[in-house]
Amino acid sequence: FMTDGRGHVRIRADYAEDSSGILSGLIKYQYRGATGGEWQQLGTYDQRDNSGMRPLAIEAESNSLFYTQKLNGRDALYRMALDGSNKSEMVAKNEAVDIDGVSRFGRGQKVIGYSYATDKREVVYFDREFDGLSTNLRKAIPNLPIISFSDSSSDGTKLLIFAGSDTNPGSYYFLDRKTKEMSPLFDARPALAKRTLSPVKPVTYRAADGTSIPAYLTVPAGSTGKKLAAVVLPHGGPSSRDEWGFDWLAQFLAARGLSLIHI
Hints:
mainly beta, 8-stranded antiparallel sheet, 4-stranded antiparallel sheet, 2 helices, globular
């Protein structure tokens, strides 16, 4: 089930079974109005070939659904009106990678941007105010480039902000949008606050057949990385991936003199 952030269940998913009672991989989505009513057909998603629509968020303010669907082999972001017309429009696309998430804000969870991951995760804000605010926060906290709006007060004037990096598990800050004053609240992992952590570097290497494979390399802090024992952590997939940032397991092993390769 998926709500609109205001207490109304708007979408439900039905996982279809085959004749043997085993999940077939087909998901059927239905929706209804903000005040309830009969469930209506919305769309499907087939996990076997990753075809169809994948609902991400319902925006109460515009009474619309944000979802992803394949476009030229990549997941693009679309918006669909939930007024019975099922009118849909493309919001954003990326030729190189899938768009895989949206950024939300406030009561009713207004959608203010979308995200995708290349070497590092990127967030694009189509809300001008938050685009400017994100830029200013990166200037105010220059060493913590992973910044997200974690939560807000009901009126949206007070924000809980997270900022972190590959060598910093992150900290939370309180921002008053009216006074523009920001103050630190607490560290995500206080025990690591005074420890020197190991940097994470996006790398690419060639497989035996010439395929270019992206990975992340972590070496002990202060080390050249030469003549070290290495641990290779292959990721399952293809539905998910590792990303640049803090990883407790990589830091644990690097602190013991090992280099890490996340594939």
